[in-house]
Design a protein that fits this description.
By secondary structure, the chain is an alpha+beta fold. The protein is globular. It contains three helices and eight strands. It has an eight-stranded antiparallel barrel.
């Protein structure tokens, strides 16, 4: 029993007195940095990481109305819910102005808000419309709040999207990347 206790005490003293440099002193600076990056939690070291983004569903309504915000055009408000990686369940809110033919006359800007309140902001940069309300939209991620502060990225959504007066709908899925 005394030998076991002595051995455990000696082991503890040895481990407590070890310095990390004993294990890394032969490594150059770049190798130490690589080792640190591999063993550190990426969320704690302040470095943004690019990740695959998947929008499993996004559904909701569109509303077209006259507004002082859209002179000689109509305000389109897009509201809905969905589920996506790094967001979980989310709420979507977007606005843009369109002319009488439905052509955009302002940027389409949006906010996607996770259940915990973290947000990222989007800007629609390209659309393709097809038969039967088919829609394909390319969005940029232009920042955010919470864990998405400074976020960037790009994603494409496809599905059905109908903007009409006074109400329409959307039902899309998507994928892309996000860096935060």
């Amino acid at each position: 029993m005394k030998k076991t206790f002595f051995f455990l005490a000696l082991t503890f003293i040895f481990m407590a007195s070890c310095n990390e440099d004993l294990f890394t002193e032969d490594l150059d600076s770049q190798s130490k940095l690589n080792l640190l990056e591999k063993t550190s939690d990426p969320f704690l070291n302040g470095k943004a990481i690019t990740r695959d983004l998947k929008i499993n569903s996004s559904i909701g309504t569109t509303t077209m109305s006259q507004s002082e915000d859209c002179i000689n055009s109509y305000l389109v408000t897009i509201e809905g819910t969905g589920q996506a990686t790094f967001m979980g369940n989310y709420k979507l809110y977007m606005t843009m102005c369109v002319d009488a033919e439905g052509n955009a006359v302002s940027e389409c800007l949006g906010t996607i808000t996770a259940a915990n309140g973290d947000k990222y902001y989007t800007r629609l940069i390209k659309t393709v419309h097809g038969e039967n309300d088919y829609f394909e939209g390319t969005f940029l991620i232009t920042g955010g709040t919470g864990k998405f502060t400074g976020a960037s990225g790009e994603f494409i959504t496809i599905g059905k999207f109908l903007v009409q007066y006074p109400t329409g709908y959307f039902d899309v899925v998507g994928e892309g990347w996000i860096k935060f």
